[in-house]
């Protein structure tokens, strides 16, 4: 049903007022899903209009699963592994961070993240020691690439050099995420010598600080591929443009424009924004991908020397489909889904109240679904 925005607002106002432990009835669920669909379709229409304005748009792999502009040879090998290889194989060690970012998935709970364990590494959800890698390679094969994530590796980076050497000797591509605040020259040199292939700086985590920009420039002396990966927020967009020339002249290879992904921890920091669900999975502010696409147009028109990659919800959706296929999953199998404990109906009232956000088509609700009807 193409529910009208007016009816959607009435129903979501009602759903938001229900007790948290009261589930919706089947017809009420139909209404809720129809509203989410209307919002998603309208948001995607806006994105398509912005995509149509980007000259020289390129896609990675089969199907429009991931889009970018710029010199293809600078497209990060870590993203190729993530999207076309064996997926994002996460290797985790530290449970600490030296920043408190409003967009962080662990906002507000950073001090409660459990440790991985002394001498242990979390790889693919399991616990291993460095010396277990030959066993993993022998029994499960080598991944196309792995990524060091969660939370800030520079907090205890000295522990990483050994395992980086082991993966390097095995010929596995490795990339590491950091906010860059602890990325000293000595540490970057040691990472390069250990065999790290790629490093990604979350500039938004440091408010695009001058110190991190220098660290990013230094990293390029020791590590083959250097880039930016930051959730697209209004604050970062302003900070980036204030230092755009300096960033583009730093010698980096790419910028991954990550669509901001909200969960129950960081949603409070974006309360009041226009939100949408992508395929009933990731929840994001509409503005986030709009910023990405406008940056891509700017990069293409000004011929930036770097790749600018649309790391969107659609890209992550496609990534999971590819990974499940390579794991032997059945047609349509995916682990992509909503990471919230329930649907936050109240959080969608702002977009339904926004006169500048319109549904593509509307129709009158059928009998039995209209406000005032008894709908279970």
Reconstruct the topology from this structure:
Layout: H1 5-17, H2 26-51, E1 58-59, E2 67-69, H3 77-84, E3 89-92, E4 121-123, E5 126-128, H4 133-140, E6 145-149, H5 161-169, E7 173-178, H6 185-194, E8 198-201, H7 210-222, E9 225-231, H8 234-242, H9 244-248, E10 254-258, E11 275-277, E12 283-285, H10 286-302, E13 307-311, H11 313-326, H12 349-353
Helix pairs in contact: 1-2, 2-10, 6-7
General description of the model:
The two termini are 17 Å apart. 39% of the residues are buried. With 376 residues, the chain is of the alpha/beta class. It contains 12 helices and 13 strands. It is globular and about 70 Å long. Helix 1 crosses helix 2, helix 2 (26-51) runs parallel beside helix 10 (286-302) and helix 6 packs parallel to helix 7 (210-222). The chain has one domain: Aldolase class I (TIM Barrel, Alpha-Beta Barrel). Helix content is 36%, strand content 14%. The strands form 2 sheets. An 11-stranded mixed sheet has the order 1-2-13-10-9-8-7-6-3-4-5, with helices on both faces. A two-stranded antiparallel sheet has the order 11-12.
């Amino acid at each position: 049903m193409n529910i009208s925005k007016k009816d959607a607002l009435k129903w979501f106002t009602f759903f938001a007022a229900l007790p948290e432990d009261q589930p919706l009835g089947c017809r009420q669920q139909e209404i809720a899903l129809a509203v989410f669909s209307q919002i998603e379709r309208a948001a995607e229409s806006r994105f398509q209009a912005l995509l149509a304005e980007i000259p020289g748009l390129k896609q990675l792999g089969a199907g429009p699963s991931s889009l970018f502009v710029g010199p293809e040879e600078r497209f990060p090998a870590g993203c190729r592994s993530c999207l076309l290889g064996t997926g994002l194989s996460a290797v985790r060690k530290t449970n600490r961070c030296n920043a408190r970012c409003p967009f962080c998935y662990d906002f507000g709970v950073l001090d409660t993240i459990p440790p991985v364990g002394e001498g242990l590494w979390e790889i693919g959800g399991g616990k291993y020691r460095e010396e277990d890698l030959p066993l993993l390679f022998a029994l499960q094969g080598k991944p196309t690439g792995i990524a060091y994530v969660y939370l800030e590796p520079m907090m205890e980076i000295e522990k990483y050099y050994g395992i980086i050497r082991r993966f390097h000797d095995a010929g596995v591509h490795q990339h590491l995420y950091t906010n860059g605040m602890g990325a000293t020259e000595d540490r970057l040199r040691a990472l390069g010598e250990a065999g790290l292939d790629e490093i990604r700086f979350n500039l938004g985590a440091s408010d695009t600080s001058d110190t991190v920009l220098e660290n990013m420039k230094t990293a390029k002396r020791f590590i083959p591929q250097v880039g930016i990966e930051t959730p697209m927020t209004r604050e970062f967009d302003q900070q980036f443009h204030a230092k755009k020339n300096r960033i583009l002249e730093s010698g980096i290879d790419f910028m991954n424009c990550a669509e901001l992904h909200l969960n129950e921890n960081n949603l409070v920091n974006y309360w009041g924004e226009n939100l949408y669900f992508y395929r009933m999975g990731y929840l994001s502010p509409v503005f986030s991908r709009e910023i990405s696409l406008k940056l891509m147009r700017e990069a293409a028109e000004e011929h930036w020397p770097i790749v600018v990659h649309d790391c969107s919800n659609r890209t992550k959706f496609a990534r999971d489909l590819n990974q499940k296929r390579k794991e032997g999953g059945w047609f349509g199998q995916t682990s992509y889904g909503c990471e919230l404990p329930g649907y936050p109906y109240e959080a969608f009232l702002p977009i339904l109240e926004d006169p500048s956000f319109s549904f593509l088509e509307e129709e009158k609700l059928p009998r039995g679904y209209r406000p005032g009807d008894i709908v279970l």
